[in-house]
Design brief:
Blueprint: H1 2-22, E1 23-25, H2 38-44, H3 59-70, E2 72-74, E3 79-80, E4 91-97, E5 100-105, E6 110-115, H4 120-124, H5 128-131, E7 135-142, H6 152-173, E8 177-178, H7 186-192, E9 199-208
Antiparallel strand pairs: 1-6, 2-3, 4-5, 4-7, 5-6, 7-9, 8-9
Length: about 210
C-alpha cells in the first residue's frame, strides 16, 4: 500500500512538472511603445497574404498583439480590450508556430502548450504564401461561456469580429502584416488543437513581416 501511495505521489509530481514546463510566460505587453494614432491605423490597415518566412515575431511583439486582441485591459474588473456579448469573453486565441501550438491564457499572460505539431499548413489550407507566416493565430469561440443563454453561435460571430479587428489594427500600428481568413482544414485543426464540441473554429490570422 505504501509503495502504491509513493508511486501515485511520484506520478502527480511528474505531471505537475510537465504542466509547468508546458506553460510559457510572455513578457508584459508594452502598450506605450506604439506611436501610430488610431486614425492612421484605420487608414493604413490592409490584408496581406505574403510573409517573410525568415523573419521571426519575437515574444514581446507577440505579447503586444495578443493583449490588443482580447487581453485584460481593466484588471480590477477583468474587462478585456474587445467587446463581448454578455461579457462572456468566449474568444480563445491559439498561437501556432513551427514549434507547435499553444492556447493563450490572458489572465496569466502565458501560453499553454497544446501540441508539438506544426499546424500552420492546416491553417493555410494549401495557400503556401500564408503558410510562410512565422505565427498564425486561430480564433475559437467557446460556446460553453454563454451557458445556453441567447444565440451563442451568433454571439460568437460578433465577438470574433471585434477581436479580429483589434488584431488588424495592432499589427498595422506595429509594422506587422496580417489577414483575416475563414479558410482552414477544420478537421485537422480540431484534432490538433484538441477542441471539444463546444469550441467553434471561427477565423485565423497569419502574422509576420
Amino acid at each position: 500500500m505504501k509503495k502504491e501511495l509513493l508511486a501515485a505521489v511520484g506520478l502527480l509530481l511528474m505531471a505537475s512538472c510537465m504542466t509547468a514546463q508546458e506553460l510559457r510566460t510572455l513578457p508584459q505587453p508594452k502598450t506605450d511603445e506604439v506611436k501610430m494614432t488610431l486614425m492612421d491605423a484605420l487608414r493604413q490597415r490592409s490584408s496581406v497574404r505574403e510573409f517573410d518566412a525568415n523573419r521571426a515575431v519575437d515574444d514581446q511583439t507577440l505579447a503586444n498583439v495578443l493583449w490588443a486582441a482580447c487581453g485584460i485591459s481593466r484588471p480590477e474588473s477583468g474587462k478585456i480590450t474587445a467587446a463581448s456579448a454578455m461579457n462572456a469573453q468566449d474568444i480563445q486565441v491559439y498561437v501556432c508556430t513551427a514549434q507547435g501550438a499553444w492556447l493563450w491564457q490572458p489572465k496569466e499572460n502565458a501560453l499553454q502548450k497544446v501540441c508539438d505539431k506544426d499546424l500552420r499548413p492546416a491553417i493555410a489550407a494549401r495557400q503556401e504564401s500564408v503558410a510562410a507566416a512565422p505565427v498564425s493565430l486561430v480564433l475559437v469561440s467557446d460556446q460553453s461561456k454563454f451557458g445556453g443563454r441567447g444565440p451563442g453561435e451568433s454571439f460568437g460571430c460578433m465577438d470574433v469580429g471585434y477581436v479580429s479587428q483589434n488584431i488588424y489594427l495592432a499589427c498595422t500600428a506595429m509594422g506587422l502584416k496580417t489577414v483575416a481568413r475563414a479558410m482552414m482544414f477544420k478537421d485537422e485543426l480540431i484534432e490538433g488543437l484538441k477542441l471539444n464540441e463546444k469550441q467553434m473554429l471561427m477565423l485565423n490570422h497569419p502574422i509576420g513581416y
